[in-house]
Specification:
alpha+beta, 4-stranded antiparallel sheet, 37% helix
Length: 420
C-alpha cells in the first residue's frame, strides 16, 4: 500500500524543477544576446569621419562646378577665305604685341584693294569734274542774268523816253505801248533767269552732296577692305602665350575660321555653371569661394549669362589672387557663391554625404557608444558647414563620411580604437 508523499518533499521537488527550467531559459536568453551581439555589424572609429554638431553662424552658399580659364583669351579668326602659306610661331611660344603668327595667301585680296584704289581715284576725278561743270554752268547763268538786267534797264529808259516824246507831241501812243510791252517782257524774262539761277544752284549743290556722299561711302568700304587686308596679316594683338595655331600649311580656310588663340597664362578666372533653379541666388558682385583641393581662393561674380541652356546658367568669377601658383588652365574646381547669413544655426561639417538640401539618413552616436541611423533634414550649406533643420541637436556626434555600404543597417557597433 502506497504512502502519501509529504508536502514539503513535493514543494522541494517543484522548486528544483523551476530552478532547472529557469536556468535553461536564462541560458538561452544569454546565448541569444551573445549571438545577436556577435552577428551585429560593427565599424571601427578609425575608418570613418565623425563630427560634432554645434551652433554657430553659417554664411550660406550655392555650389557650382567650375573650370579655370585664362583671364584673357583671344581667338584670332581669318578675315577672308584663303589658304595658309607659312607658320611663324608654335603652340606654347611667348609672343609680343605685333609678332607675326602665320602668313595667309593675300594675293587676291591685294588685287581687289588695287582695283578699289583705281576706282577711288576715278570717283575723285568725277567729283572734281562735276564741281567744275557746275561752277561753269552757274557762272554762265549768272552772266546771262547780268546781261538781262542791263537789257531791262535799257528798255526802262526807252519807255521813259517814249512817254516824254508822247507828252511833247513828237511820239505816238503805239510806240509808248510797244516800249512798255517790251519792258514788261524783259522783266518777266529777267525774273525767269533769276529763278532758274536759284533752282540750278540748289540742284547743283544737291548733286555735289550726292557725289560727295557716294565718295564717302566708297571711302568707308575701302577702309574696311584695307582693314580686312591688314587683319589678314595675322599678328599677335598683345603680349601673351600662343595656345593654339593652325599649322597646316596649304590648308584652305574659310572666312571667320579660327586660326590661332592667344592667352594670358599669368592671370586666371573661373567659368562656372549652376542649375537654373539657383539663378536668383547668383548675382553680379556676390562673394565667391573657389576651392582647389584644400586651398580656398576668394573672388566675386563678375558676369552672369541671362539665358539658361540645358537647365544650367553660366557665370564667371574673378579671383582676388588671380596669379596663384596652383591655378592651371582647364583645372576643374568647386565654386561656392555666398548668398545669405544664418545665425545660431545647428550645423555639421560639409562632406561627401551632402548632395543638396533635403532629407538624409545619418548615423549618430548614442549614449551607449553605438551608431544609430536617424532621419535628419539638412538645409543650406557653404564650403565648410551644412545647416541642420531637424533631427540633430548641438553636441551630437555624427558620421560625415560615405556610409553607402551600410545603407541597409539601422544600428552599428562602434569600435573605439586608436587611429593608425
Amino acid at each position: 500500500m502506497d504512502r502519501e508523499i509529504p508536502k514539503d518533499v513535493l514543494r522541494r521537488e517543484q522548486r528544483t524543477r523551476w530552478i532547472k527550467w529557469g536556468s535553461i531559459v536564462a541560458g538561452i536568453v544569454v546565448l541569444v544576446v551573445v549571438l545577436l551581439s556577435t552577428m551585429r555589424k560593427s565599424i571601427n572609429e578609425s575608418d570613418v569621419t565623425m563630427a560634432l554638431a554645434d551652433r554657430g553662424t553659417i554664411e550660406t552658399s550655392v555650389n557650382a562646378s567650375g573650370r579655370v580659364v585664362p583671364a584673357f583669351e583671344e581667338i584670332i579668326n581669318s578675315p577672308i577665305s584663303t589658304k595658309i602659306v607659312e607658320v611663324y610661331s608654335r603652340e606654347g611660344d611667348s609672343v609680343k604685341e605685333g609678332t607675326p603668327l602665320l602668313r595667309l595667301d593675300l594675293q587676291s585680296a591685294q588685287t581687289e584693294i588695287d582695283k578699289l584704289m583705281d576706282e577711288r581715284r576715278m570717283k575723285q576725278y568725277e567729283l572734281e569734274q562735276t564741281r567744275l561743270n557746275n561752277h561753269t554752268f552757274l557762272t554762265n547763268l549768272e552772266m546771262q542774268v547780268k546781261v538781262k538786267e542791263m537789257d531791262v534797264n535799257r528798255k526802262r529808259v526807252e519807255v521813259a523816253n517814249e512817254r516824254r516824246l508822247d507828252s511833247l507831241g513828237s511820239g505816238t501812243g503805239d510806240r509808248v505801248r510797244e516800249a512798255e510791252l517790251a519792258y514788261s517782257t524783259g522783266q518777266l524774262e529777267l525774273e525767269q533767269l533769276r529763278q532758274q539761277l536759284v533752282n540750278e544752284r540748289s540742284v547743283r549743290e544737291a548733286s555735289m552732296k550726292m557725289k560727295g556722299l557716294e565718295l564717302d561711302i566708297f571711302e568707308k568700304n575701302f577702309a574696311e577692305k584695307q582693314r580686312t587686308l591688314n587683319d589678314a596679316r595675322i599678328l599677335s594683338p598683345r603680349a601673351a602665350t600662343l595656345t593654339y595655331v593652325n599649322n597646316q600649311i596649304g590648308q584652305q580656310i574659310g572666312q571667320g575660321e579660327k586660326v590661332a588663340v592667344i592667352s594670358d597664362l599669368s592671370h586666371f578666372k573661373v567659368d562656372a555653371e549652376i542649375a537654373d533653379s539657383y539663378a536668383e541666388r547668383v548675382a553680379v558682385g556676390a562673394k565667391a569661394i573657389v576651392r582647389l583641393g584644400r586651398q580656398k581662393l576668394e573672388g566675386h561674380v563678375a558676369s552672369v549669362t541671362p539665358l539658361s541652356k540645358n537647365g544650367v546658367i553660366a557665370f564667371s568669377v574673378v579671383l582676388d589672387n588671380d596669379d596663384n601658383e596652383r591655378l592651371r588652365s582647364g583645372l576643374k574646381t568647386d565654386v561656392f557663391v555666398m548668398c545669405d547669413i544664418k545665425d545660431e544655426a545647428v550645423r555639421i561639417p560639409n562632406g561627401p554625404y551632402f548632395k543638396g538640401p533635403g532629407p538624409y539618413e545619418l548615423f549618430v552616436e548614442t549614449s551607449e557608444g553605438e551608431l544609430e541611423k536617424k532621419s535628419v533634414r539638412l538645409g543650406d550649406s557653404n564650403y565648410e558647414y551644412v545647416e541642420v533643420v531637424d533631427g540633430l541637436n548641438a553636441g551630437d556626434r555624427v558620421i560625415v563620411s560615405d556610409m553607402s555600404n551600410f545603407a541597409n543597417s539601422g544600428r552599428l557597433k562602434l569600435n573605439k580604437e586608436t587611429k593608425k
